[in-house]
Amino acid sequence: MADRTTNDPAQVSGNDYQWKTLDKDLNRVSRVEYATMYVSRPMVGIGISLAFIVLTTLAAALVMGHSSGTLFVVAGAAFGAYMALNIGANDVANNMGPAVGARALSMAGAIAIAAVCESAGALLAGGDVVATISKDIITPEAVAAPRVLTWAMMAALLAAALWVNIATWIGAPVSTTHSVVGGVMGAGVAAAGLSAVNWPTLGAIAASWLISPVMGGAIAAALLAFIKKRITYQDDKITAARRWVPILIGLMAGTFATYLAMKGLKRVISVDLSVALLIGLGSAVVAYALSVPLIRRQSEGMENRVRSLKQLFGLPLVLSAALLSFAHGANDVANAVGPLAAIVSVQQSGLVFGEVPIPVWVMVIGALGISFGLMLFGPRLIRMVGSQITKLNPMRAYCVALSAAVTVIVASALGLPVSSTHIAVGGIFGVGFYREWHAERRARQASQQRPPAKRIAREERQRRKLVRRSHFMSIVAAWVVTVPAAAILSALSYLGLRAIFG
Fold this sequence. Notes:
- This protein is mainly alpha-helical.
- The chain is 79% helix and 1% strand.
- A two-stranded antiparallel sheet has the order 1-2.
- α6 (176-192) packs parallel to α16.
């Protein structure tokens, strides 16, 4: 065999040129492949979502068989699956965002915990029955005819899902409960006019737009102020943490036990406020007794710095996020499957009831839809809630999580209809605005003790704000328009459905 090696410089440089050209071409191909993968990534989630909706409709068709109402149930199942996907994409971020933003959980860990806890809450503790007319928004007489009720529930589902989808796309965490309320109201107005709406109830819900975030923000800010005063600004931070962190853990355990007893264990047991408070008190005592030696062991050898204290709040924050997800799955799954359950009941019985049972297969649709929506589309809102509104650490995120549970309990005791979304995001804003106020207050105190520094320009002061004003304005605007936007979409959907099926 002839030797292929050569010492000809021209041939060698020619070969090098060919190899360099080939490398450049392969590089271009690789870049095209990476770009194609990046562009097609969102399409994967859309494809899986469409497959889930199709499988849901097939399951509904198999359950209903060849009955006369199969078409309505199949369409309602598609809308319910679509709504469940959007709840997972938008609403769950409120529970997991603070823990991810504080780096107590990775994104993958948060999604896994939320998916399990949301599904468990929906399947194990979801309500056995659901009100046919959500929150008594419209009078039962307005939708007394089975066909009118079916169209109204389908329109409400479709409109609420569309609005939550739009809000997720623009990066705004909105209340899925208020979206459903708006959908039911719009369908009721389209079916029977403005007189069909229960305006006092709607007024109470409108009041909760202001009450929920303000209450959540105030409680979160108060908790953060307490932690700063009693732990962070103490000379011996470790000793202060050993004294107060077990108390805070006990408070968290008692609050969440009360919260779950009131809001998340309807299928297991139904209790009133006094019993729920006793359950919470017992849980607080047990948690405090267990956490005292645990915190002492964790704090051994820690440096006397604020950074060391953050480690002590990691585990309570993860547990609080998991419990919030469980309670959310138990309560908010009805937003996806409640109208669907009403459609199934009407088509099977031909009668309109004030409350209807939720079939197991309908509850499974809601649980799986929320989990798929979270895994496929949830990370964007989780990042926004957890890190783009204001900077969170484990202590601040702990205050947000605890304020959410406390606010729901207080609001329930007062009979106020509140939104968990508004409370959680309001808590984040409360923590951020308190940090701004506190930082400016300390700066003023420091300036009084030293010669006045050069005046800071207005633009520079705005840049140093600890809460992003653009997110604040867009989120508040989305909250304000949620009910009217969902109502308009629902009215149009109702008129369209009546034209198709009428």
